[in-house]
Design brief:
Length: about 400
Amino acid sequence: MGFSDLDALLTNEIAAEKLKGCSIFVQKGNKTLFQKSYGSDKEDSIYKIYSMSKPITSVAIMILFERGLLTLQEPVSNYLPAYKNMKVVTPNGIEEAKNQITIKHLLDMTSGLCYPGETTLSERIMQDLQHKMLGQVASGKKLKTVEICNILAQTPLEFEPGTSWKYGFSADVLGAVVEVISGMTYGDFLKKEIFTPLEMFDTDFLVPEEKLPRLAKMYSRNPKTGKCETPTPEKIHWLGLDEPSKAPNIESGGGGLYSTVKDYSNFARMLCNGGTFTNSKGEKVKILSKKTVNFMTKPNVSEMQKTSKYLINMDGYEYGNLLRIMTDLAKANSNGSLGEFGWDGLPGNYFMVDPEEDLILVFLQHVAEGPDWILRNKYRQIVYSSLED
């Protein structure tokens, strides 16, 4: 029973080739309850964490917030002027937006900014814009984080800022805001203010050549068999993994970081502790105040925003400050705790923090098609049912 069930679950996934590798870390207080890597992955394997970069960006913004270097209600155009006169898609066509995007809109994904796609007009325009930028980079033009985020402002918003919810480039724009305010590259700011204090020595926007042997392999799930296979070069390119040791053009606050299960568990432990972390020397370091962590881990999505057709796969959760927050255990079909929070990453990466139980869970994998939601629910259920009273 207990964590032997968790071990059996993941061992069986590997045996069935539903996964080729993964790493998991579970900690309650200062006690590690379970830590293991499976298949081709090792304890020190490096993963691209994609959207699990977003909570780190939220903490970066809160650091500036605590220092009085920005307010959440001010327009992002105070730092990125390209966002001052935004356009928005309306039933009557593309018009001038009535409201400016604020820092808080970006934190809550209520800005109206989207990702590239083919479903909506904004997505298609964003996709065309992205292709043009990639073409410029391919021809030798160097574009950096602030410049790229200013270019993104050419895309009309999906909706008036603050009136709905949609996943998009909001966190990337916040990374550019950090650069403008701090006068540092986003990566250097994160290293100084978060990664070094939290001993996250393998977390960065690239993987140094000497660490490339530790990079976890990416796999692709066969839709017919459900088994993991070697992905095509085209898929690796789409995932942005063809040159992991090359410095990226944009240090993406929304999805650009690499990390390890141990590094990210240090970040999760800091949040669970209310903003502090005890390092390997026994020293207590403070990243944020407890009041700020309490604020950033409370839901901020209004009733109007909760009805958004884009807020999917989040039954029982609400959203705020680039995090999901548990608000209804019955709707989530969960044996967890109210107030549990965290976020995911594209290839099935996942973390959660449960302040009530003093519990953190970090799970990392590399499967191009993303998570197996049933597996995720199973390992969560086992972890909670295995906790000591």
